[in-house]
Amino acid sequence: MNPNVLQTPIDYLKGVGPNRADLLRGELGIHTYQDLINLFPNRYIDRTRYYKIRELQENSSEVQVIGKIVHLKTVEQKRGKRLVATFVDDTGEMELVWFRGQKWIRESIRINTPYVIFGRCNRIGHLFSMPHPEMELLTEHESSLRTAMQPVYPSTEKLANKGITNRVINKLMQQLFTETGGRFMETLSSSLLEELNLISKPAAMFNIHFPKNQELLAKAQYRLKFEELFYIQLQLLIKNLVRKQKIKGYVFDMVGDHFHDFYDKHLPFSLTGAQKRVIKEIRHDLGTGAQMNRLLQGDVGSGKTIVALMAMLLALDNGFQACIMAPTEILASQHFNGIQELVKPLGINIKLLTGSTKTSARTEIHEQLRSGELHILVGTHALLEDKVKFHNLGLAVIDEQHRFGVAQRAKLWHKNTIPPHILVMTATPIPRTLAMSLYGDLDISVIDELPPGRKPVKTVHRYDSNRLKVFRFLRDEIAKGRQVYVVYPLIQESEKMDYKDLMDGYASIEREFPKPGYQISIVHGQMKPADKDYEMDRFVRGETQIMVATTVIEVGVNVPNASVMIIESAERFGLSQLHQLRGRVGRGAEQSYCILMTGHKLSDDSKTRLETMTRTNDGFEIAEVDLKLRGPGDIMGTQQSGVLHLKIADIVKDNQILKAARYYAQQLLKQDPSLAAEEHKIIRYTYAQLSKHKNIWNYIS
Ligand code: ADP
Ligand code: MG
């Protein structure tokens, strides 16, 4: 078939008039023949069985019945009109009911003519009733391309109201196959088809729309899912290759004094295997002459900071400046203090720049940055201001990635003609499958090992009614010299109420833990930064034993002596947030605890979250559960909800296929990076087509 046939506007398909064409475009984004054949069914229904009216049962699934309409009437109701048909077969009588599209139904229905109706039944009194049945004349039903597995296509209320039922879509699909002969071009190379035992494109297309049986349907689904994921992976990998070829990066080929000095003499502990591996990966990137764009994933406390520092030292050794950017002032100061302490013996000029840096200090920083006197700049997004100009920024480290988002990442880039190397660190593990789909064009390093000697945090779930026991436990821990966090939810929409919860909680803790025996800090979002810092500081220095806070302490705060994390209204937190909060404890040598406080009424999802938290400390496992509970769109935010627009694959359910697709795309590019070989012609052609017709593949940004 001439591939251009598939670009024919949908208006030209027999059975699609201008009205239907508008609806298909507006509701389903179907502009061309190609769009229509790529409208894949959501599910399939077994339509081999015909029911008699006598056999109908309450709460059964969808059924099909053969019979006739003997009577049609409009019933007036307070809430509006409905159209009711009396439908009979040789065993009894039932009702068909329409609330919408009544005019169209009334005009098109034939009385006393055999129909096959299909839908779900309700029982009202002794009578069965089927709202908005799918209907087809028996004669047409018998002559149509009938399949045992009836596809159910995505639809919208508007389409249903305008009479574009599933049946109509099905017929249009038949028409399309008739007009084109169903001879769709193959889109995968014969070696892939052979190696993976995939069915051909035409066979897959036919069986996805008109499956003959379960087995063929499964084969068709596998083939099409693989194809979809394969081309996405190919695109991501090619983007990455192109970036590496096109985007030059500074070459850090010297491993010099700073790095060696620090590594040999001043490292406060020995690195874990995972840290060493990741440093190696980064060193390799920095030596290739291409810009590094690496995502470093590592659970809270896995020791990402030291890795970032060693990378920055490499930059310095090669005569470049480096910066590290954190999402909050608290975190930025912690990084600053920590790093400054570590590099003290090296004689490095390092400064902190945040929103609250005084003007005089700010001016000095700006000058030293421009002259190159300043080696490492630590800060918040104040680093992104236009006034901040580096002499030669070689490496930018971004901590806690998804609080910034991609736009800001891009902004850092444009500060130089040759972009700095970029290392993005995130403590919220992104499930591998998701990372592969979203960040396939980034390189990913994982620290999957905690520093030795850490005792896993013990996590328990306690009901509010057990609060007194929990307080007793706190007293014991504080008596041993430990410190405690008590965290309250603070969620935007209900901020006032949450604030009240926090203040009530604070009051009750003050009653239970009175001065002077106990000192309490409080930190929340409505405080001035200076007050926050003051309260934080008192806790860090051990002057207060209890820190009452909202989730502002979620990210990064490091107080090794704190051994208990109490999370109030834990059912209101998401899994990744709970895990982040728990990561605030268990940083010292002592056994630490996380206590999840809730009321008795819990949703199923809340129960799953609590159960997951008490079962495991593994951030990746938690991320997988989170992905299953919330779906990819919610996890990554609307910004990246593109992953939801897959035509047939599901990155959660089909992650095995995704892995295969990525593997084969990698192999292909290793063998033939420009897809020049004759045997890859099909792939090269398909890839070019897909890139051209963006409407189909618009989920690739
Ligand atoms: P995160 O990955 O959460 O940013 P940090 O870099 O803050 O973790 O490290 C957490 C703590 O673990 C810090 O106190 C750090 O000094 C310590 N640490 C990091 N790596 C090691 C190691 N290899 N051995 C012992 N302690 C380490
Ligand atoms: Mg950190």
TrEMBL record:
Gene3D superfamilies cross-referenced by the UniProt entry: Nucleic acid-binding proteins, P-loop containing nucleotide triphosphate hydrolases
Classification via PROSITE patterns: HELICASE_ATP_BIND_1 (PS51192), HELICASE_CTER (PS51194)
Pfam families documented for this protein: DEAD, Helicase_C, RecG_dom3_C, RecG_wedge
EC number: 5.6.2.4
Reaction(s) catalysed by this chain's protein: Couples ATP hydrolysis with the unwinding of duplex DNA by translocating in the 3'-5' direction; ATP + H2O = ADP + phosphate + H(+)
Domain of life the protein comes from: Bacteria
CDD domains: DEXHc_RecG (cd17992), RecG_wedge_OBF (cd04488)
Full protein name: ATP-dependent DNA helicase RecG
